[in-house]
Amino acid sequence: MEIIINTQLKLRAWKTEDKQQLQRIANNQHVAKYLRERFPSPYTMNDAERWITLNEMGLDETHFCIEYDGMAAGSIGIDIQLDVHKQTAELGYWLGEDFWNKGIITECIKAVTPYFINKFELKRIFATTFSENVTSSKALEKAGFKLEGILKKHAFKNGIDYDGNMYAYTV
Ligand SMILES: CC(C)(COP(=O)(O)OP(=O)(O)OC[C@H]1O[C@@H](n2cnc3c(N)ncnc32)[C@H](O)[C@@H]1OP(=O)(O)O)[C@@H](O)C(=O)NCCC(=O)NCCS
After folding, report:
1. What is the pTM of this model?
2. Fold of 3-170
3. How many helices (DSSP H) and strands (DSSP E) are in the chain?
4. Residue 58's pLDDT is what?
């Protein structure tokens, strides 16, 4: 499945040929700074291989490679929640630093939100940003997500406590 956003930007499956580019763009502390620790930093070739293999095995197509000007530029996807939360999903995304501030993630969020809602019959997609991560919050707001609240001391990373912003898009 591919989602064509415009002539420069599309969402498609991760493929083996992306391995080197993935490792190159993901191996960046600026990218990792506000992501969970499960996003490796440093990001090795093995990490890239594992991510691509995982996606190739996945049957549910919940994660896309963001392709910009023919290059793998980042990743966007959802994790569908369990139990009574099964109609909700958490949205996550990142872009290689070379691709920041071109409006790319805003367009990707706008594209995947209705797509995932329809595909998986979801009622809520949420994202929690580190409150300092103004860029991410701004992108979510531009894509129609609403700030629902501030989660005090939501995250602890590299010795620092961070508040979180809970954003959601509901139908
Ligand atoms: C967060 C991230 C995906 C944003 O991607 P992006 O494509 O650069 O974002 P966009 O260009 O679509 O939108 C960013 C908006 O924030 C604005 N912005 C950036 N820094 C800002 C600041 N300090 N204060 C106010 N607005 C700011 C930009 O101007 C832009 O808005 P505009 O288009 O109205 O000018 C990218 O920075 C990234 O990958 N960061 C590392 C990983 C990460 O933090 N992921 C999110 C975890 S929740």
Report:
1. 0.96
2. Aminopeptidase (3.40.630)
3. 5, 8
4. 79
